[in-house]
Design brief:
CATH architecture: 3-Layer(aba) Sandwich
Structural class: alpha/beta
Number of domains: 1
Strand order of the largest sheet: 2-1-3-4-6-5-7-8
Number of helices: 12
Helix content: 25-40%
Shape: globular
Largest sheet: 8 strands, mixed
Amino acid sequence: MAFILKELLDKPEKLTSGHRLCPGCGAPILAKWIMMATDFPLVVANATGCLEVSTTIYPYTAWNTPWIHNAFENAAATIAGVESAYKSLSRQGKIKKKVKFIAFGGDGGTYDIGIQALSGALERGHDMVYICYDNEGYMNTGAQRSGATPKGASTTTEPAGKVSYGKKMRHKDLTAIAAAHHIPYAAQAALSNWQDLMKKAKKAIEVDGPAFLNILSPCVRFWRIPDDQTIEISKLAVETNFWPLFEIDNGKWILNYKPRERKPIMDWIKVQGRYKHLLQEKNKPVIEEIQKEIDEYFHWLEKRCSD
């Protein structure tokens, strides 16, 4: 199934213009596309973060759908509670229509602070979708490192300098962690492949039971990229295998895209200011190590998807 752009543009917007997110921010793009992917009525919970604070500056809101703000750590718990209330009201005959439930959280509120609530909601089997807009750091509070921050990136809490090249650990494989809960659907997507993203969003929203989407969401301020290069940077992430596109559909692992000619990770690194220190000769071994880890992971992923 392919989405037709003209038909999408004719749909009412569930996230309107006029918000205060940065030019080039990936979060409002993916939020709009995801909510366009289904015709079901939606209820949205939004963890504290850039998407929340910049779309709901009192007394205004950019959300054209029922929306709940909650703390950094409990977006999954909040939407699970709303979904439980809806089920109760449906059983009592007080609600007749089918409603779907979505939680949006950044990587800080998903990989780190909110992983306990997320794990609990997935394990309990709530009919909900949790969407992580992954900008690889705590952007709302000043670009601190998170569990999603990739190796080598410089952040305010793990900066590059004379004694360090930035973050030394690899980022978590949160999509695989979510899939390990044996949920009906989990997937990884990117803005550069919008048809793939929207197909996954539709599948995640309309499946019965919990679903998880992890979507790379470039941050122009932290990544130090031009604000007109969001989609190009997303494409580079996919073409270098830094951010593979795959899904786990009822336990079956599926690789959605394999670059015809994989680009070296240097192509991804050299266009982002957060990595500029890695271009120094002394840090060449770090780039080689990052490349090795990416190649090993993609090899593992290919094997996992062929089983």
